[in-house]
């Protein structure tokens, strides 16, 4: 019996030691440009699975979204009522860190692979490195505006860790040789948010100088899918401009916006093609960087249909819906006096008596819906219109009222609205212009995970807690005072998280 048991143990050991035949071992990977490109595509995969969380973090808490269910899901409703607990599963930011880990891995492998593949020149290597650096910055940008505390990880920990030891010396050791205490000391928490903002800004500016112009990689123009599904130089400039505004560097922000605005591959597009960016894989002119899904080829989906559709047979759970009183007022244009704004027709609708977020369940701006369980609407991270509207914000802060007014009119006319007249509109009133710009952003990016952060930024620029005032209005009259009081404390703008989660 003992002999038989020994043979079984040996057999089991041999079985578990065998690598699956379809698995690529790392020593056989990272050998050439094709491997780097495959690794680059993999960086985006983890992020693409988090879009429903971005909707919760950036919209469910804000003024334009509430719950659609008569008996709300308790975890979803925590976001709607702005009382999120640390054990809420939707506060888990593991997907962002999976992306960060893959970006760190890519950056630490790029130049090793360049030595093995003579076809990779310095420009191409820099492009791969800059792509990973920018995508990592996007993840930290999401984190710094959502969480008060989170770890900073800037190295690849799969093989080795470089850190400063107790004697102040920089040391590099194999990961598996470290104690849990040593690893915990390396996964450090930043001293303050300013440290994170500085890291993000510097990384985005560095990536801006490394990424190729007009989506050219390895001397080849990317396909439409890759062009908008991967980060780019126009994206880096636009994101750098947005961060510069948060940091109070308005002149820099205004100048950075000029790069995508003057780029022939970016435009405001037209009202007729505006909805294509949600019903199709992308929309030329409108798209800049998005999470795309291909249901037809590989059944790639997200959870946006589940979260926003009221049609149960199609998998809709109607977790979230528009706040009718807020969006109806926002999309009413007192100047045009028409229903010409394509965004009013396509952002939300009434379907079978239910008001729904239409962007992720519609196939046109009328009433055609996507098939059940085929939730593959794109999730836009940054769009071309961002550059125009960020330019307006920056120029307003520089007291360049005429320029800010001009860029707002460009967006309005591209969406089907009439031009605001300088002779009748008080465009030199900073308070009036501030509201005009952020209302325009609310219409342009409704239900795209932006509104909460825009209210944060607007509050910062005005030195007044606009967020608390705006968000309180979506609640019943009896609840508004308590909600406003809670949100007057800026500490409550951030989502709590289990402090052990990052470990």
UniProtKB/TrEMBL annotation:
Primary subcellular site in the record, as a coarse category: membrane
Organism (species): Pedobacter africanus
Cellular component GO terms, alphabetical: cell outer membrane
Tagged with keyword Zinc-finger: no
A Pfam family of this chain: SusD-like_3
The SusD-like N-terminal domain, residue ranges: 14-159
Keywords per UniProt: Cell outer membrane, Membrane, Signal
Localization (cell): Cell outer membrane
Family per similarity comment: Belongs to the SusD family.
Span of domain RagB/SusD: 309-456
Domain of life: Bacteria
Protein name: Starch-binding associating with outer membrane
């Amino acid at each position: 019996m003992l002999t038989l048991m020994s043979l079984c143990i040996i057999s089991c050991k041999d079985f578990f030691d065998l690598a699956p035949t379809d698995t690529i071992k790392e020593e056989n990977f990272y050998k050439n440009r094709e491997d780097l490109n495959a690794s680059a595509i993999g960086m985006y995969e983890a992020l693409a699975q988090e879009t429903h969380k971005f909707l919760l973090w950036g919209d469910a808490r804000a003024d334009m979204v509430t719950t659609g269910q008569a008996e709300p899901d308790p975890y979803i409703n925590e976001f709607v009522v702005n009382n999120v607990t640390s054990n809420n599963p939707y506060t888990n930011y593991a997907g962002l860190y999976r992306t960060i880990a893959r970006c760190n891995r890519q950056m630490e492998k790029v130049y090793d692979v360049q030595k093995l593949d003579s076809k990779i020149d310095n420009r191409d290597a820099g492009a791969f490195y800059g792509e990973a650096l920018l995508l990592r910055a996007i993840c930290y940008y999401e984190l710094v505006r959502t969480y008060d505390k989170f770890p900073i990880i800037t190295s690849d920990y799969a093989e080795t860790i470089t850190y400063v030891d107790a004697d102040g010396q920089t040391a590099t050791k194999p990961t598996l040789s470290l104690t849990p205490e040593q690893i915990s000391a390396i996964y450090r928490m930043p001293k303050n948010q300013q440290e994170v903002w500085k890291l993000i800004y510097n990384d985005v500016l560095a990536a801006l100088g490394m990424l190729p112009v007009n989506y050219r990689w390895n001397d080849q123009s990317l396909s439409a899918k890759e062009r908008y599904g991967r980060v780019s130089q126009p994206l880096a400039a636009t994101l750098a401009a947005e961060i510069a505004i948060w940091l109070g560097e308005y002149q820099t922000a205004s100048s950075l916006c000029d790069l995508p605005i003057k780029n022939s591959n970016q435009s405001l597009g037209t009202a007729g093609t505006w909805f294509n960016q949600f019903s199709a894989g992308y929309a030329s002119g409108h798209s800049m960087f998005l999470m795309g899904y291909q249901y037809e080829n590989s059944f790639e989906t997200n959870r946006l249909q589940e979260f926003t559709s009221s049609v149960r047979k199609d998998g809709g759970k109607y977790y979230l819906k528009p706040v009718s009183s807020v969006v109806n007022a926002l999309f009413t244009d007192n100047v045009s006096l028409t229903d010409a704004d394509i965004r009013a027709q396509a952002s939300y609708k009434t379907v079978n008596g239910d008001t729904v977020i239409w962007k992720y369940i519609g196939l046109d701006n009328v009433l055609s819906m996507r098939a059940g369980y085929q939730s593959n609407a794109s999730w836009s991270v940054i769009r071309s219109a961002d550059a125009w509207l960020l330019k307006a914000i920056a120029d307003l802060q520089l007291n360049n009222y005429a320029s800010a007014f001009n860029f707002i009119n460009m967006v309005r006319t591209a969406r089907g609205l009439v031009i605001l007249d300088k002779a009748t509109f008080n465009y030199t009133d900073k308070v009036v212009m501030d509201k005009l710009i952020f209302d325009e952003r609310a219409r342009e990016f409704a239900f795209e995970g932006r509104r909460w952060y825009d209210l944060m930024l607007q509050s910062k620029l005005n030195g007044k807690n606009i967020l608390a005032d705006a968000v309180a209005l979506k609640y019943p009259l009896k609840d508004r005072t308590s909600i406003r009081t809670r949100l007057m404390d800026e500490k409550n703008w951030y989502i709590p998280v289990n402090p052990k989660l990052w470990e």
